[in-house]
Amino acid sequence: MPVKRVDPVPSDIEIAQAAELLPIMEVAQSVGLSEDDIDLQGKWKAKVHLDVIEKFKDRPSGKYIDVTAITPTPLGEGKTVTTIGVSQGLHYIGKKVFTCIRQPSQGPTFGIKGGAAGGGYAQVVPMEDFNLHLTGDIHAVGAAHNLLAAAIDNRMAKEARWSTNFLAKALCPDDEYTPSMRRRLEKLGIESAKPSDLNDDDKERMFRLNIDPDAVQWRRVVDVSDAALRSITIGLGGAGNGLVRETGYDITVASEIMAALAMCNDLADLRERMGRIIIGTSKKGGLRSAGRIEPITAEDLNVAGAMTVLLKDALMPNLMQTLPGSPAFVHCGPFANIAQGNSSIIADKIALKLADYVVTESGFGADCGMEKFMNLKSRYSGLVPDCVVLVCTIRALKMHGGGPKVVAGKPLDKAYTSENLELLEKGLPNLLQHVENAVKFGVPVVVAINRFKYDTDAEIELIRKRAQETGAEDAVMHNVWAKGGEGGAALAEAVVAACEKPNNFKFLYSDEMSIKEKIETIAREIYRADGVDYTPEAEAKIKLFTDMGLSHLPLCMAKTHLSFSHDPTLKGTPRGWRLPITDVRASVGAGFIFPLCGTMKTMPGLPTRPVFTDIDIDVETGKVLGLS
Amino acid sequence: MPVKRVDPVPSDIEIAQAAELLPIMEVAQSVGLSEDDIDLQGKWKAKVHLDVIEKFKDRPSGKYIDVTAITPTPLGEGKTVTTIGVSQGLHYIGKKVFTCIRQPSQGPTFGIKGGAAGGGYAQVVPMEDFNLHLTGDIHAVGAAHNLLAAAIDNRMAKEARWSTNFLAKALCPDDEYTPSMRRRLEKLGIESAKPSDLNDDDKERMFRLNIDPDAVQWRRVVDVSDAALRSITIGLGGAGNGLVRETGYDITVASEIMAALAMCNDLADLRERMGRIIIGTSKKGGLRSAGRIEPITAEDLNVAGAMTVLLKDALMPNLMQTLPGSPAFVHCGPFANIAQGNSSIIADKIALKLADYVVTESGFGADCGMEKFMNLKSRYSGLVPDCVVLVCTIRALKMHGGGPKVVAGKPLDKAYTSENLELLEKGLPNLLQHVENAVKFGVPVVVAINRFKYDTDAEIELIRKRAQETGAEDAVMHNVWAKGGEGGAALAEAVVAACEKPNNFKFLYSDEMSIKEKIETIAREIYRADGVDYTPEAEAKIKLFTDMGLSHLPLCMAKTHLSFSHDPTLKGTPRGWRLPITDVRASVGAGFIFPLCGTMKTMPGLPTRPVFTDIDIDVETGKVLGLS
């Protein structure tokens, strides 16, 4: 639908609520999807069936564009706005385009940051649906995650209470194995047709998982910013409530299950991934041969099937629309610092068959989201990106150049509101290092300058010159926030041109490298650290995971997005530092090794005045108020 | 759609997956709803807009039938099967009927009990949707509940850290009050146009809630049976994570918010209820006048608006269908032992305008769900029930008469598989006490005998004779499990006849009675206790809530469903016992006082072999396997 623009630009929610939307069925039809290919979720959202991948497999694939950014200020540099804006720009110049973005977490939506549907005249709508529950995918991830957590504590409590014979009888009342149990038999190398055939040793190996409470790495999750749950003690109140142990909560979007959902290619793949999730290890000793500890999986707990059942609808991407009515998939999770932070492979794959240009977004700076897009997501998808759009603002570059601190709600310093080529020049290396990094992957790069009213032509020209010297195809200013698709037309033209350039896509590291070699490759090539230091705990985990045969997995680094380094206060392009790896986790279901750089919180907190303070509902009209 | 029945009766999921469903749009149209009145949720579910109540307000209301049961065995007596079956029976004899049932919790679905979509040829379909997420209402309740929990701990942590002046500035950065803050000003009796006008004392009263950590009654919730979370310590790991305190998790369906959703009449009502939720009290002393403690509400925490926003879709009932295609609403929560356990007022109200007969279900035995249906739900709805259907099985009555223990998975004792009038006669008083109780509310009662193959004509005749002597209109056997609507036709005829009988509906207690008088009325009239004993804690809470002006509220008793008494081992009709009230909570948002009888767990646990052990997905077809 053509959008009537107003000047000055109203608030995001005012624009979103004033927009005339197309019925989502029409959006679906516009890309060749029929009623049978989708499940409507009200009038403005639809789940798209996975079998459309098969249905359209002979169609040519569209061009594949990844939007990423420089190291952001705490205000953000408008990456989602640009992602949607470049899509609206492509739509404006007459291209068939599909946008793939991630569903925001309700933690930040009600906490510090507000929603994430874009902004101004570059939005995915309706913004309330986008920011609130959407179609329940994150809740489904939470339900599956917490079901596994309950299964772990329940199993430990029951094993502490019952004899092996009792456990065997309770688990196999009809003297029959479930398919899940037969998988465990196979893993243990035990041949057995029915439980009553087992000798005592094999019965114990089979039915007593002997989970080490101190080695359980599976925490619980909730989609609320709740700092009080970061570290908790559970199982209090008596033996009926389980074993007392320390654990904690992460934000749901950081769940391994969210990553598995994003990284999988179909339902069968998801089922396998759920079974492979390692929740911890068995205790040393006991009947285990030579005191070796055994990784315990969701399959061993007989719960991977039920988890997959809980996720079967979440696996389908959610179709929505941009303000001018072009199609958008909203699927899987954000948080590219503590998670993989890219939208799903399945959404991208479907979109590539339905449009000529697919614009997908990687979270936070290119050292976080784009590195994972290239080394991790593309490894599992087999898809090759045709272009990287690297978003920057002149304000952020000046900040990286040493400009005064930028604080939300306070007036900007004069350094940011008048031309200052010297300060900009000082900050440019941050952009240029990201350009260099993107170029290392062999993909053409377009720099997108997200326009603020104080930016001058000379400043823009300086960025273009330096970016092109460093290997970028182009650097283009856009103004999609104020002008929608029209404001993104020039950027869209540059992207179209870049997509025609030669492409030499490659990963930065090979599967065969050791875990440490992979970490060190990223640290050197992307972050530009002098080296890597490991805590004894990290060393032990790397040895454990290598012994378990997991070193072939790619990495998902957990690192702050506010610096190339692990220290959020180091702006620009830090040099002469070493990367500390404090811990390493194995997310085998998601399909990666997860090294933690420095201190990383996997559960956000709330500020003194959370965003929810302004949110309410008009009880007469049902309209949401104050969502930002 | 006509259902092709097979003998022997296949499993529930086989029947459900073989059923030919009507597109839910057709079901909607069959009761006069248009496309604009609903939001499709895929092809088999739809949310119905609340404004249809206004649209159809001039239509006559249908007959209102509450289905309840005797004190059940652990196997359940087929109350949901009968609820759906009597509906299918009414449909079969040509009546326009609507069924209103509750959404099951995923805790039992994956834990002990399995799903709750009915069974055999009396089901609401698709059963996978019914049992899994449905449209996300329970998740929305959890999100709103846990957002409030995070707001509480965040506020306590921030108040512990900051001066009152800092808090005031952080909460009102523009020196302006939000609407929510103005409500608090009014409650405190402070007149103020803007924060900077406040004197120091008023500023402290306004911005420092001074929550007593030991008096926080708001726990957290999750829709998983997770015993390890019943009692936990949070806020560990340093001051940045909040204050260390003990708390715990309840199952989501026991949330006060679920009850508020069920008890409210519209969006405005829900918004007010969210604001009224009392999370605990302030500490004694400080600036509070004369050391009085103040109840702290969700409104005081400025989060009630955001909570309502999270619930705006959950407020709409979910339209589904029975096997023969008659309409069914699935809305709000189960657990009539630890919650109100009835489907929503809004669903019933809409259904009454769309059909001539509305069959709604109250959870567990009539001492639990029906008592709350009458005294609590009908008080808030203003609706008058026309008939009570009281479900029993001959097996359960024999158990109440002293028959051998009934254990799932073990063959039934001969006492249950052959005619035994003596044992039945001994167990009948349980049924008759429930009949007497229903009659006390002035509503005609029909006893529904859920048929098992061993039941004999003489046994049925004995039940009918005794039930009618005690005041029931009729007692009718049905066989809806094996025969669907046809098997419920005779029961449906009896219900139609009962609905024409005179109706003298009345509550058992008045608003004006004290909290203790209300408790004692229920204990005496329904449970038949000799008296009530209160722990010192319960006494103190009753005094506190009375002082707060809350004694006008009706009650929602938390009591085991396995006995008329608080002791689940006392079967039949216990006499000569006293009811212990161990604690009392005030659920002001839901609109009731919540007395706990004996030891009540508000979070179920898992058995050694949880139901999830059998659940999996066919990765080729996407079909759910093993859901029961």
Provide a descriptive summary of the structure in words.
- The structure is a homodimer of 628-residue chains.
- The first copy, chain A, has 628 residues and is of the alpha/beta class.
- The first copy, chain A, folds into 3 domains: 12-135 and 313-499, P-loop containing nucleotide triphosphate hydrolases (Rossmann fold, 3-Layer(aba) Sandwich); 138-300, Domain 2, N(10)-formyltetrahydrofolate synthetase; 515-597, Formyltetrahydrofolate synthetase, domain 3, CATH 3.10.410.
- In chain A, the strands form 6 sheets. In chain A, strands 1, 2, 3, 4, 5, 6, 13, 14, 15, 16, 17 and 18 form a 12-stranded mixed β-sheet that branches. A 3-stranded mixed β-sheet of chain A has the order 19-20-21.
- In chain A, a hairpin with a 5-residue loop joins strand 1 (38-40) and strand 2 (46-48).
- In chain A, helix 8 (164-171) packs across helix 10.
In short:
Two copies of one chain form a homodimer. Chain A has 628 residues and is an alpha/beta fold. Chain A is globular, with a radius of gyration of 25 Å.
Could you list some keywords that capture this structure?
37% helix, 628 residues, Domain 2, N(10)-formyltetrahydrofolate synthetase, Formyltetrahydrofolate synthetase, domain 3, 12-stranded mixed beta sheet, 3-stranded mixed beta sheet, homodimer, alpha/beta, 3 domains, Rossmann fold
